[in-house]
Amino acid sequence: xxxxxxxxxxxxxxxxxxSREVMICTFECTFCVDxxxxxxxxxxxxxxxxxxxxxxxxxxxLARYPASTHRVLKAEGCAPVKAA
Length: 84
Known about the structure:
By secondary structure, the protein is α+β, with helices and mostly antiparallel strands. The chain has one domain (1-68): Herpes Virus-1 (2-Layer Sandwich), CATH 3.30.40. 15% of the residues lie in helices and 10% in strands. It has two helices and three strands. It has helices at 33-39, 59-64; strands spanning 22-24, 30-32, 52-53. Strands 2-1-3 form a three-stranded antiparallel sheet. A hairpin with a 5-residue loop joins strand 1 and strand 2.
């Protein structure tokens, strides 16, 4: 089950569980759509994977399975993934 992390790892913007402006990779690294597209150019800085929009958990299920409150923030900030 997805954690539904509460913030962008780059800019620390709040990302509520109902937001449709959240991008995640296969490891569930979580970024706002602006950082994912403009700063990171579509590639996760942690694993190099691609992003997809995070699904929204239905309200009834959110009550039973709440979103995470653990915030993850890259202390060094974010930079685009460099091509190998």
